[in-house]
Write a structure and sequence with these properties.
Strand content: 15-25%
Largest sheet: 8 strands, mixed
Distance between the termini: 25 Å
Radius of gyration: 18 Å
CATH topology: Rossmann fold
CATH architecture: 3-Layer(aba) Sandwich
CATH superfamily: Vaccinia Virus protein VP39
Helix content: 40-55%
Number of helices: 9
Structural class: alpha/beta
Length: 268
C-alpha cells in the first residue's frame, strides 16, 4: 500500500517539482479555493511545492500538510518559512494510517500522489475517514500516455512508455488521471466532477516550453533513468536519443501537449 517514488528524492527532483508547481500554478490551482476558517489536509505534500501555492492563495484557511518522507517534510517546512506563510503546519505521517480523529477536515487535497500508490482505492478510503460529512476531496493527477508532440520521435515515445512501465513495476499507475472518476465513485464519494487540464506548448510560448516541456516533463523522464535503463526497460542509447527528441519539441517549430485531471468529490 505504500508509496514507492520512481523519480527518487534527489536535489534535482526537488527542483523539478518546484519548477512544475510554478509553471502550472494557474492551470491547476486557479479554482483551488477554501472558505475562511476551513481546515484543510494536504496528503503527500512532498517538498511543499503545491503547499505554498495553496496556502498563499487561501490565507484565511488552515492547512495541515503531511508526507511519509521526513526529508521532504523538512524541505517543505523551510519553503513555507521562506514564503512567510503562517497558515500551514507540517507533519511526517503515512496517509494510509492517519492518526487524526474521524471527520477532522473540511477539505482534503491530494496532488500527484495516487499515481505512486499500489492501492489508491484503499488510500482514498483512509482519507475519507478523516473528512467531515459534506466535506470535499480534491485529487489532481497526470496521465503520461496523454503526451504527444511534434516533431514526433520513436525514441521519445519509447522513453515515455518506459517511464509508464517503470512506474507500473513499482506498483503505481502513471496514467491514473483517466481513472479518477471511477476510483472516486468506487470509494463511495458523491458529486464527483472531473476537469481535464490541457497543457499546450508551441513556439509562441517560450516560457512554457522551458518551464513545462523541458524543466517539468523531460526532466521527469530524465530523472527516471535508473529504473528505466538500470531496470532493463530501455537501452541507454535509445533512452538518450529519446531525451534529445523530447528536448527538440521545445524549439520554436515544435509543439507539446499533455493532460492533467482535477477531480472533486464530496463525502456522503
Amino acid at each position: 500500500m505504500r508509496r514507492r517514488y520512481v523519480h527518487g528524492y534527489s536535489g534535482r527532483e526537488r527542483e523539478r517539482l518546484n519548477d512544475q508547481a510554478a509553471t502550472l500554478a494557474e492551470l491547476i490551482h486557479h479554482d483551488t479555493v477554501f472558505p475562511p476558517g476551513a481546515r484543510v489536509l494536504e496528503a503527500g505534500c512532498g517538498v511543499g511545492a503545491q503547499t505554498v501555492i495553496m496556502a498563499a492563495r487561501n490565507p484565511r484557511a488552515q492547512l495541515v500538510a503531511i508526507d511519509i518522507s521526513p526529508a521532504s517534510v523538512a524541505a517543505a517546512r523551510r519553503r513555507a518559512a521562506r514564503a512567510r506563510l503562517g497558515n500551514v503546519a507540517f507533519q511526517v505521517a503515512d496517509l494510509h494510517t492517519l492518526a487524526f480523529p474521524a471527520g477532522s477536515f473540511d477539505h482534503i487535497v491530494v496532488c500527484f500522489v495516487l499515481e505512486h500508490l499500489t492501492q489508491p482505492l484503499a488510500a482514498l478510503r483512509a482519507l475519507t475517514r478523516v473528512l467531515k460529512p459534506g466535506g470535499m476531496l480534491t485529487i489532481i493527477e497526470g496521465d503520461h500516455s496523454s503526451a504527444y508532440f511534434h516533431p514526433d520521435g520513436d525514441a521519445a515515445r519509447a522513453a515515455v512508455a518506459a517511464l509508464v512501465a517503470a512506474q507500473a513495476r513499482a506498483g503505481g499507475d502513471a496514467c491514473i488521471g483517466r481513472r479518477l472518476y471511477p476510483l472516486l465513485r468506487t470509494a463511495r464519494l458523491t458529486r464527483v466532477r472531473v476537469s481535464p487540464r490541457l497543457v499546450y506548448v508551441d513556439g509562441s510560448r517560450p516560457a512554457l516550453a522551458r518551464g513545462f516541456t523541458l524543466d517539468t516533463f523531460t526532466a521527469m523522464v530524465a530523472g527516471a533513468r535508473e529504473p528505466i535503463v538500470g531496470g532493463g526497460l530501455l537501452d541507454a542509447r535509445t533512452f538518450a536519443r529519446g531525451l534529445r527528441e523530447l528536448r527538440r519539441t521545445a524549439r520554436r517549430d515544435g509543439t507539446f501537449c499533455y493532460t492533467f485531471f482535477k477531480a472533486t468529490a464530496v463525502r456522503r
